[in-house]
Amino acid sequence: MSRPQTPPRQFFPFGNPFRMISPKGSNLPSKLAAILNAFERSLAERLRKLHPSSKDDVLSLSWMKLAMELLCETHSDIKTLIKELDLPVPDWNEKWIDVYLDISVKLLDVCNAISSELSHLNQSNLMLRCVTHNLDSAESKRLARARASLGQWKQNISSSNSRVKNCCAILDSLGESLDLPKVKNSAKGKVLMLALYGVKVQTVFMCSVFASAFLGSPKLFDLKIADTYSWGQTFSSLQNDVNNEIRSTYSHGKFTPLKELEAIDQCVANLHKIIPENPEVEEVKPLENAVSELRGKAEKLSEDLHLLTNEVDSFFQIVLAGRDALLSSLRGS
């Protein structure tokens, strides 16, 4: 987590490459149209599930866990769709293969960056648990160490993560290639590209939200999706509400939009005020309630980080399995 030291770098410094992209190939054979419609209905339903019921849902770790869980489901769906299309890999256009492989390797890098920051948050949280242990004693030396550690925690949690910064460049690249190759003379190919477009939109948006949560500054997309997509309006509404809440958080000077981390930061600030700089000579106010609150929030954060990390690992494995399956088919052919 880092505070922006320089003006935040905007995505796409040379202009927004996104345009209103309309689905093509509406005259698909009924079987292929049914496959595509089923995929897009599932995508729309997942986007609806993510729509926050209140601003407090953005960004909570439970909401982020759900977002990653639903992203896993969408990527699993694309594997199922490829099987249903019965489009053998040797029949794939070379551009389609390049697109799939390019997306997958970049997503693996994004997963590694997210996992790196989750590990950083967990290590910082362990520091707080040591602090609460020291605060169980009224011994002046332990109180002084605890007070110093609270200050170190804030510095640690605000430190820059270069892997997450690099993740932004990857997301830029994914966003710039959102418009997938045009398909001629292949109805199955059109279905594949339209489905991959939906996958990319959901993936790029959700990963940009994660990057914004971890970087300490908004690094968000504003994707323009044609209403002719059955999931277009649902996505646009979700994107608008989530992005607005994140931007509002940072505009008010908060160092993170993560609800659980913000709550812990308030507990840390409160304890830092209560513990005097020199507890040997100054009276120490009762700490029991404040320490108990911090301990409870730190334990809950640890549980939530563990669950989210598991979902990110699952996403990594799904992307890796799809990539390996494609490469294996190419070698076999």
Structure explained in plain terms:
- Mean pLDDT is 84; it is low at 2-22.
- It is elongated and about 80 Å long.
- It has 333 residues and is mostly helical.
- It has one domain.
- The chain has nine helices and no strands.
Helical fraction equals: 55-70%
* Proportion in β-strands: under 5%
The helix-and-strand class reads mainly alpha
Q: Main sheet, how many strands, which sense, barrel?
A: none
Low-confidence stretches: 2-22
GO cellular component, one term: membrane
Subcellular location: Membrane
Organism: Cucurbita maxima
Protein name: Protein BPS1, chloroplastic-like
Summarize the structure.
With 333 residues, the protein is an all-alpha fold.
List keywords for this structure.
elongated; 333 residues; single chain; mainly alpha
Element layout with pairings:
Layout: H1 30-50, H2 61-85, H3 94-134, H4 140-157, H5 162-176, H6 187-215, H7 232-251, H8 259-274, H9 288-332
